[in-house]
């Protein structure tokens, strides 16, 4: 029997929304009722007054296996996650080929278990080839371990096909993850419509495209009664529709990206492609509205939407460059910007980073309660550092925070009570 006793900790509990000194006991990888004194033979870990919280569950991570291992492998993603306090990765199915068959899902599940020091679970494609027409074998994919179903950024314009897939998913209790964008209107858009985009000559998309896509998805969710999650809500215009769906009792949740919470459209500056995202960065007014919705609980989840891209894919004219940024190692320090600005408390942040994604996906992690897996992160929310993208453990280095002054350093990470990372600094 292996017993760990974490003492002198600042416990961040997202279930009780408490932030208080305390201790934590772990027996054979499972959290037990806290006691002030360690049991005989326990390994005592002095947290030095730093924050001990549930490990982050990062929902929507792109990993390059299969097909693009040069961008990110399960091993490199797992090492980056551990260094960032992420103990569970929820991986996307937008691979090459897509994760749209039980055989492909079983392959990536096995590869992840063999290669990564953290937990990796997968979403599967909703339609074959993510083409938006013919649904995948949802039942078999559920049996193979799929947590949810999504075509990620390929939004189907065929509402009839989507409604069929949702109806079938509803019969199986499966969760559908949608990317709220009107596909025709948003096609080719590299920035949000604004004076800034016009001045820079960047092809732009109206923020109304997000609301239109969300309204369509919510109408289908109401019609089919499916469990639905909107992966990225980034505009103020989308919030009333989301609030109405919640008030009507629909089984609907929503997430947003850490980049849309901490950056805005002006950060693109002189066509800096590391700031090109999907959806594009929004106005400062939108950013503030999404932060308020997160604080109020209307938006449930914060994720990094880790999207590795090689140098050749980013060193192109802005409208031609790949969208997205890596985020497994920058998610926590970027989230600390919201804490230090007074927008959210640490328990509120970990509610969105750990508890809510675990609850929505039916996972036991994301908690400090007795019986939960001991997936933990020890961090210093005030430790300052200068972000250097070449020190990131991800194979790809496309972060918009390169050279930025940040606060919040991960000191150690445990998965099932086993230490998978400890800072050397």
Write a structural description.
The chain is an alpha/beta fold. The protein has two domains: 3-51 and 375-422, Urease, subunit C, domain 1, CATH 2.30.40; 55-361, TIM Barrel (Alpha-Beta Barrel), CATH 3.20.20. It has 13 helices and 17 strands. Strands 1, 2, 3, 4, 5, 15, 16 and 17 form an eight-stranded mixed beta sheet that branches. β7 (86-91), α2 and β8 (119-122) form a beta-alpha-beta unit. α4 (159-172) packs across α7 (208-224) and α7 runs parallel beside α8. The longest helix is centred in the middle third of the chain and has 17 residues, at 208-224.
N- and C-termini, Cα separation: 31 Å
Q: Any idea what the CATH superfamily of the largest domain is called?
A: Metal-dependent hydrolases
The residue-averaged pLDDT reads: 96
* Total DSSP helices: 13
CATH architecture of the largest domain: Alpha-Beta Barrel
Low-confidence stretches: none
Rg estimate, integer Å: 21 Å
Largest sheet: 8 strands, mixed
The name of the CATH topology of the largest domain is TIM Barrel
State the secondary-structure class: alpha/beta
* Share of β-strand residues: 15-25%
Report a brief summary of the structure:
By secondary structure, this protein is an alpha/beta fold. The protein folds into two domains: 3-51 and 375-422, Urease, subunit C, domain 1, CATH 2.30.40.10; 55-361, TIM Barrel (Alpha-Beta Barrel).
Layout of helices and strands, plus pairs?
Layout: E1 3-13, E2 18-27, E3 30-32, E4 43-46, E5 51-54, E6 56-61, H1 74-83, E7 86-91, H2 102-115, E8 119-122, H3 138-143, H4 159-172, E9 175-178, H5 183-186, E10 191-192, H6 195-200, E11 204-205, H7 208-224, E12 227-230, H8 239-247, E13 252-257, H9 258-262, H10 284-296, E14 301-303, H11 311-314, H12 331-340, H13 346-361, E15 376-386, E16 405-415, E17 418-422
Helix pairs in contact: 4-7, 7-8
